[in-house]
Amino acid sequence: MSAYDMVNVIESDPGAVRVLRAAAGLGLPDWWIGAGFVRNRIWDAIGDLPALPERDVDVVYFDPDRLDPGEDVRAEARAAEILPDVPWEIRNQARMHLHNGDEPYASTLDAISRWPETATCVAVTLRGDSVRLVCGHGPADLVGMVVRPSPAFRNEAGRATIRRRVEAKGWLDRWPGLRLEI
């Protein structure tokens, strides 16, 4: 599956496009929707599985001038007014390094690259009417259905976190073809 194919998976999903358009309407700077929103759709497409309802929609953006967590709460409220059936989670990555115990992030894409698994370090955004895709560590693990720690999680605590995530989220039940390289 190429990057073009992955974008096509998102663009051909009316629910995904609806969510992307709603997120675009929020006017957040450097915004992306990532993690399971993309990863699950790609893995479902590879496994020829029907889509499941969203557990959460992770909207991330970067605005060093709006560091108050209340800004995220207000953005979630605006998003819920637009699409009340979507479980929005909106976070400004300009302050999330404090929560994660990292050095400050330089951008939204820098923050995305530090998520737990390489296959989860993915996101999409709309630029005009075009879906843009980013894979923080390349697309190989995502399309290869490989669960591998991102560089930020390549220690024993990080690996333990990933093992808990795989189990708690039921990934092997949903996608038995996953290859765990934890």
Protein described:
By secondary structure, the chain is an alpha/beta fold. The two termini are 23 Å apart. A five-stranded mixed β-sheet has the order 3-2-1-4-5. It has a two-stranded parallel ribbon with strand order 6-7. It has nine helices and seven strands; from the N terminus they run H-H-E-H-E-H-E-H-H-E-E-H-E-H-H-E. The radius of gyration is 16 Å and the shape is globular. The protein has helices at 3-11, 14-24, 36-46, 69-82, 93-100, 108-112, 140-143, 156-168, 171-174; strands at residues 32-34, 57-61, 88-92, 122-127, 130-135, 146-147, 179-180.
Structural class of the helix and strand makeup?
A: alpha/beta
Helix content: 40-55%
Q: Specify the number of helices.
A: 9
Mean pLDDT: 96
Low-confidence stretches: none
Radius of gyration: 16 Å
Largest sheet: 5 strands, mixed
| Strand arrangement across the biggest beta sheet | 3-2-1-4-5
Q: Compute the number of strand runs.
A: 7
First-last Cα distance: 23 Å
What portion of residues belong to β-strands?
15-25%
**Globular, elongated, flat, extended or rod-shaped: what is the shape?**
globular
